[in-house]
Every structure is written in C-alpha cells, then in structure tokens.
C-alpha cells in the first residue's frame, strides 16, 4: 500500500509539482489531485503527468484526501486555509511549503483551529529560481533539507507522516522552532535574495546598463542567479518575514558601513584581513556542505 | 614560427599559469620563463609544465624576451615595473592582467616611460576564485573576454600582438578606455565581491554562525562563491579602484535604503514590481550572454 492514497497539491509549480513527481517516482502515492487559481496551469500539470486530475473545488479536492500540500506563495495561504476549512475532514494531514513559518502558523491558528492536530507546517529548502509547472522534476528534493516546525498541538503520527513523505522524496528532515526558522532563513536566504534583486535593479536602471551587463562575467552570474527568482513569491516572503529581514538588513548595512570606512581610509590591512576571514569561513562551509549531487 | 618566442610570466598563479598553458596548447609560444616572489611556486610551475624555466632575476628574464605578462595582484605592479625597467629591451611587448587599469597605467608612466610604445595594459575577464599555480588550466580563457586599454603612445603592432596572444588563448578581445573599464568593473565585479565578502564575514562573526551556515543552501552557495576569492588580490583591487568602488557602493546603499523603506512600509506592490524588473533584466542578460561552455 502506498504511503499516501489521495494527495492534494494546491499550487502545482516547481515546489508542488516536484513533490508530486518525487512521490510518484517513489511509489509513495496512489493518486494526485491538483487545486489552483490557474486552470491552464492545472491542465498543463495533467499533460505533464504531474497530477492525475483537477479538483472542481475544495469540497471535491478534500473528499477522502489523505494528505494536502499547500505550495503557493505564502501570501495566499490565509485565504486558501479559509476556503478549505469547511471541507477539511478529520484525519487529513495538511502541510505547506512556505519559506516563512511564523506567518503561516498564525494563519493556521486563525483558519484551521479545529484541525491543529493534523496541520504540520514545513519548508523544503530547494532552489526555486526557475518557477512554474514546467520547471518541476522528481529529484529536486534529493539530498536537500526540509525544515518541519511542528505545532505543540500536532499529533506525533501527523508529524511522522509529513516527515515520511519528504523522506520518500529523498530529503533530510530537520525540526526547528518557527522563530529560529524565520531568523535563520532571513540571514542565509531572504537577505541574499533582497541584495541580489537590489543589485540587478540598480544596474538595470542606469543609462549605461547595456555596457555594464555586456561585461558582467561568471562572478556576476552566480551572485545574481537568485535575482531570477519569482517576484510574487519573494514579495510574500519579504512581507511575511519583514521583522527578521529588517533586522538582518540593518546588521548587513552596519557591515557595509564598516567596509565603506575601510575603503575610504585605504586600510588595506583590515580589508585583507576581513576578506581572508570571509574566505576561510566560506571554504570551511563549502567543504562541510558540498552541493547535493542532483541539479540544484 | 610561433607567435611568441620567449614568453616571460611574472606571477604564475591561475591567471599567468593558464595564459602560459593556453599559448603552449595553441603552439603559440616556444619557451616560457617564470619570475616571481615565491621560489616554491615557481618550482611547482616547472613540475606542472606551466613554465619551462625559472629566471634568476629580471636581467636574466628579459634577455631576449619577446613578450612579458605581469599577472600578480595589482598592488605589486609598481614595484615590479621599477625592478624590470633597467633590463627591459626595446621591442619587448609588455602587458598585464590587472583587474584595474587606471592605477596600472599610472605605474606604467611612472616606471616604464621609455617603453610606452610597447606596454599595452589589459584585463582578462576570467573567474579567479580558485587561485594558485595548481588552479591553472589551458582552457580558462576560452570564450571569455579580455579588455585591452591601449595607451595613446602604444604602437599599433604592439596592441595587435597583445590581441593576437589573447586570441590564441581562445578569448575575445575588446577595447575600452581605462576610465570606462574601471567604472564598469567597479559595478559588475568589484562591488559584488565586496558585498559577498561582507555577507559571509557578517554571518561568520555571529554567535549562532554554525546554525546559520548549516541551513544555507544553493542560493547562498552561488551568491557567496566569490567570497572564496583571493584576499590579497581583492585588497589590491579595492584600493586601486577605490574611487569608482566607493561611488558604486554609495549608489547601492541608496538602493538598499529604498528597499528598506519599502519593507518598513510593507509596500508589497512596489517590492514585487522591483523584483520583477530585476528578474526581467537578469533573464534578458542571461539569455544574451550564456555561460561559456568551458568550466568557469
């Protein structure tokens, strides 16, 4: 018997689509039903074999559902939970793939209060700069991390089923508090995205933008790759994790003010020292966490 | 007959070593002589076949030399030019691989005044985050750009010989003024390096650095790759191009101040618009300038 009988995926883009494909490849799901705001995307998902059928609405989708993954931008989750609440059956496991957790959990308490035992918030840490249903692939999560931030009300077996689903996708599951999650990812993910978007936006607005871009090379390519990320998704992340992101941005601005002072003073000794410390930390990290072998 | 008879490479690291290897592979050089501050590096360069012999000093190196590449961090070039000046013979072509050009050209006028016809400043645009003689490989420059910033005093045939050498390495040569060069690379290379060094340095100094780094994923990996670059080289670049880099940093700080205000105001509409503009510019650039097919 498969791990999941009827799987409902709300938002069949890169994240939701790859989850469905991975579970199918692992033989861990019997039937995948798609829900979403865009009928054309859902139709394409059927064509691509990402989902097996399209639900007419939440009543239809949740009828006999074992497991629901909410994989839309986080800004939509409150309204989605409100819409699904009347039709959610006891025992159906619900999880999400939102990049922020405190705001998602607030929405869970607001909208799904009778179901707190079985709603398990989570966040798969997988590159999402190529978005859309066409971008999904079954090995996206292989070797990646998934952070689960259980609610105190969660039933242990509900948490276990969410862990098992992600493990079946090839991911490693870790647990964190929502507060830690949001602070950690503000630093290592949300801030870098903001910085990359900002740099490309800054340069693109220059009178000599064409000249500048024509001389950008491999360093620029890697540094700005995440500026190709999904604008709506990142708008939602920035708003949802605004407090932690502002704190990180302010700390980074202090770092830049220090670097600016070193530059202004022509302090080569301290610049070289700082660059050396950064290089050693980056090298140590890269040695400890080599890239997963699948395409990122 | 080979393009170059006796080639002298000063600084046999990634850049100088790869130049020698590329010319050898192209059959464009007869003999490569290495000069440098570190005897062990030079000995290793002979073992690796990067150079054929080690010069005892500049007199020895420049005796009968056809072509000299200066491939050290730019902060050393003034002293190097001073040391080589008494031994430089008329007709020997001299070029450099410095990432900044105005400061190098100032040193040329200061140290090599009798040789202005044959000293042609240049800058190969090739990733240099892995440094050292072991990192060199013959295809580093294939499909890459080399910017040549000729002096008004340069003989056309001297410029042509520098272009021909880089073309033999598989690179595409473009000409720019030193002023344009330094401004353009402050924006698309020097500033991103400073920002990446700064982010890693900032995070590495936190009490919870280990927790943060353990959750960094592929976006962080790419964004911070250039923070693994050579500290001395980047110290020199920052100091040499300080003026243009400060101007770029200040413009970027204004961009971050704008982003901070949007975050603080919770202005999702403008955030999404800015991210969308950045994404479109990044996508258009990536489509127009696909990565070279060789390893970057």
UniProtKB/TrEMBL annotation, chains A, B:
InterPro entries: 6-PGluconate_DH-like_C_sf, NAD(P)-bd_dom_sf, PDH_C, PDH_N, Preph/Arog_dehydrog, Prephen_DH. Pathway: Amino-acid biosynthesis; L-tyrosine biosynthesis; (4-hydroxyphenyl)pyruvate from prephenate (NAD(+) route): step 1/1. One of its GO terms (biological process) is tyrosine biosynthetic process. Keywords: Amino-acid biosynthesis, Aromatic amino acid biosynthesis, NAD, Oxidoreductase, Tyrosine biosynthesis. Its EC number is 1.3.1.12. Belongs to the prephenate/arogenate dehydrogenase family. GO terms for molecular function: NAD+ binding; prephenate dehydrogenase (NAD+) activity; prephenate dehydrogenase (NADP+) activity. This is prephenate dehydrogenase. Coiled coil: none annotated. Residues 5-293 form the Prephenate/arogenate dehydrogenase domain. It holds the Pfam family PDH_N. It catalyses: prephenate + NAD(+) = 3-(4-hydroxyphenyl)pyruvate + CO2 + NADH.
